[in-house]
Specification:
Blueprint (H helix, E strand, L loop, with lengths): L1 E6 L5 H13 L3 E6 L6 H11 L6 E7 L4 H7 L5 E6 L7 H8 L8 E2 L5 H13 L3 H26 L2
Helix pairs in contact: 1-5, 2-3, 5-6
The structure holds 5-O-phosphono-beta-D-ribofuranose.
């Protein structure tokens, strides 16, 4: 099981590394690349075209501004692509979000929130868990812990 994480610029990394951490916590292998749909389009085509043969089963594509990376990668691969909009411009990431989410029919990119790196990692894990009972159990445990943590916080307030 391997996730390919691609970011449009090294400047996206402070957000992207939060997705890496989630994947690491779930014990999922990943590789991280800097590839731009605009600055290195030939590398984008090569990465996406070869992703499946290289054992990549899910791609996380992080980009800001006119964020075409996820869509371009999705155009060249049958591997599911999760778009991670980065808040990297004067438009506060709304430009990235709309660039990623508004794909034409036939080429979907699953889109998480602006700077929603954790959810990109969790969604990648959930996609992979379809074929891994062990990972599915880890996700169920993750959700149970999240629920317990919030209930504990609520209890702090109700006991005041
Ligand atoms: C996008 O442009 C990148 O994904 C990044 O979010 C944004 C700015 O890139 P840099 O100018 O910082 O390299 O392509």
């Amino acid at each position: 099981m391997k996730v390919g994480i691609v970011m449009g610029s090294k400047s996206d990394y402070p957000v992207v590394e939060r997705a890496e951490k989630i994947l690491a916590d779930f014990g999922i292998e990943y590789e991280t690349r800097v590839i731009s749909a605009h600055r290195t389009p030939r590398a984008a085509e090569k990465f996406a075209s070869e992703a499946e043969a290289n054992g990549i089963q899910v791609i996380i594509a992080a980009a800001g501004k006119a964020a075409h990376l996820g869509g371009v990668l999705a155009a060249f691969t049958p591997v599911p692509v999760i778009g991670l909009p980065i808040k990297s411009s004067t438009l506060d990431g709304l430009d990235s979000l709309l660039s990623i989410v508004q794909m034409p029919k036939g080429v979907p990119v699953a889109t998480v929130a602006i700077d929603g790196a954790e959810n990109a990692g969790i969604l990648a894990a959930q996609i992979l868990s379809v074929a891994s009972p062990e990972l599915r159990k880890a996700i169920i445990d993750y959700k149970a812990k999240m629920e317990a943590d919030v209930l504990a916080i609520d209890a702090e307030f109700t006991s005041k």
